[in-house]
Here is the input.
Amino acid sequence: MAVPVACNLCGANEAQLLFPNTLGTDRRSGSIERYRCTSSGYGKHLAIVRCTQCGLVYASPRNGDEAILESYEDVVDELYVEEQLGRVLTFERNLRPLLALVGDVEHPRLLDVGCYAGVFLEVATRHGWEAWGVEPSAWAAEEAVRRGLHVIRGTLATAGLAPAWFDVVTLWDVIEHLTDPKGEMQRVNRLLKPGGIICIHTIDIGSLMPRILGPHWPWLMEMHLYYFSRRTLAQLLEENGFQVIRQFSQGRYLLLDYLLAQLQAVSPQLSRLLRGSARRLGLSRRPISINLGDLCTTLARKTAEA
Ligand SMILES: [Zn+2]
Here is the structure.
């Protein structure tokens, strides 16, 4: 049953409705299909509210935390593995600032939270990192292990990792899916060495696109529970033992065919036509760098115990 949720940042219960629930009586709501990484559940979301005290934007009311975690445990997504090239290019680029921050540690130790099938771990390993991952989806975790990666199935709360052991912890497109971001920041803080780095990449509700598009901003989705701005994310980090180093918008590489497939939401015919043309021209697998300014990376350093 869906129940109202208190603010995860300041604990307040009063919130103002920003976008009403668009799931209606759709019985597929909460179905596993929507929790896939390549799911296109655009335009369908829970009610989204803004805390009247601190301004945090989040989905409420919503189902209990256990039901949400179970949805992720059962996710199976063959498409994700096929769509790898764009991700590899994106992660190659995203790794660079992290390397600069760890300085001259020889084989820095990294943990990727919600690592899915382990694409980032593969990239990091190739660049000399000792890379570990935690992933709730049984299918994705098995896929990563099959590829020879160190991946523990579960969550940070259950993984049993040693404290003060990692130089860097990353969360790529993960924090917006968590039921308790504050608790997760405290767990990450414990796992990091003193002075260790946290890297969070997430959608940015304070950027220009959501202000222009309003209810049509495509990242308003059922599986997104938290919509941080740079300010609310910085506050979350600073209240949990971190000091923000840098926040910057960071896009991603997508294959042309994947982009054209997204056009289905606007016009299935146009999408089919353009995908066919791109195939004939041999351009389907061309990577395109996309940055609409609504995805933000935040780098922060552990300066105190949470
Ligand atoms: Zn609040």
